[in-house]
Amino acid sequence: MIYPQSNLCAVVLTYNEEKHIRRCLVRALDFCRDIYVVDSYSTDRTPEICRQFSRVHLVQHDWPGTQAQQFNWALEHLSLKTDWILRLDADEYLLPGEGERLLRLLRAQPSDVTGLMMLRLRYFLGKHIRYGGTDRIPLLRVFRRGSASCEPRAMDEHIVLTHGRALLSDILFADNNLESLDFWLCKHMNYAHREAAVSPRNDIPPDKLHSCLRRTRMNKELYARLPLFWRAAGLFFYRYIIRLGFLDGREGFLWHFLQGWWYRCLTDQFLREQSEQP
Cα-flanking dihedrals φ and ψ of residue 83, to 5°? Predict the structure, then answer.
């Protein structure tokens, strides 16, 4: 256990996450001083599991409508005592040994470094999806208390620093959802509706975004200018052929076809329906 020397806590948002929450908590408690779980009145065993850990603080709060609103509520209302805060989803966790590396890295940072980006490893149907360009995506997930908030977007929201600068690290964390493919399909049907309603333009001035997110948003704006449906086919071809997504076998094909083509076609159809409304 390395948590006694930790100046880091974690905030996790949950709703019916009994399949994931124990794994998330057990791994994070090894290096976090405390974990704050903001639950939206789950109807499964999520609250019961959280109460089994003495350093996990469970708070119930009605779902305000978006992840960004819920996370910002947590930052404003919870009594977070550590200098550094880690944002984790319930189906995410740091790889073995990465928590200790993270704490060493945080202790070495000067005061002007207020955020830390980690690299997300993508898992789908239990397999690490290494190829296709969607693995090891840098995300700002660690920040100094009082130095960041979640941008107010209904979809594709990110943490944005209010001051200071972000450091790009090689700390690895996994996004490894254990739900069925049916669950994934239903969730992405909802995501497609939400993405169709969100402008691809930046809501935050570019100089407030770290370079990795700024580049991602620029690519999204470029993608938005391409013809509907054809752009989804092009994205699948780019990921699966040019970026060698086929090397991940059956799971790789399903991931790039469903997330890179099917999901994008759904979004385009919903966009077309919106444009045809009187």
Answer: -70, -30
**pTM for the full model?**
0.92
Confidence of residue 1 (pLDDT cuts 50, 70, 90): low
Distance of CA 82 to the CA centre of its chain: 22
Would you say residue 209 has pLDDT above 90? no
- Measured distance CA(24)–CA(28) in Å, rounded: 6
**β-pair type (137-144, 113-124):** antiparallel
Residue 37, strand partner residues: 12, 58
Q: Please give the Cα distance from 127 to 125 (Å, whole number).
A: 6
Beta bridge partners of 86: 10, 142
d(CA 215, CA 200): 13
131-148 pLDDT tens trace: 999 999 999 999 999 999
Distance CA(192)–CA(208), nearest Å, equals: 27
- Cα–Cα distances (Å) from 19 to 44, 51, 255, in that order, read 10, 15, 21
Helix (H, G, I), strand (E, B) or coil at 154: coil
Asked if residues 24 and 90 have their Cβ atoms less than 8 Å apart, the reply is: yes
Which residue reads 């944005």 in tokens? 160
The domains located in the chain, with CATH, are: 3-175 (3.90.550.10), 181-276 (no CATH)
CB 181 within 8 A of CB 125: yes
Six-digit token string for 68: 């960004």
Contact 114, 161 (CB under 8 A): yes
What is the CB neighbour count within 10 angstroms for residue 220?
Answer: 16
Is 160:142 a contact under the CB 8 Å cutoff?
no
Number of helices (H) and strands (E) in the chain: give both, helices first: 9, 11
Task: Report which secondary-structure segment, H or E, holds 62.
Answer: none
Provide the 3-class DSSP secondary structure of residue 88: strand
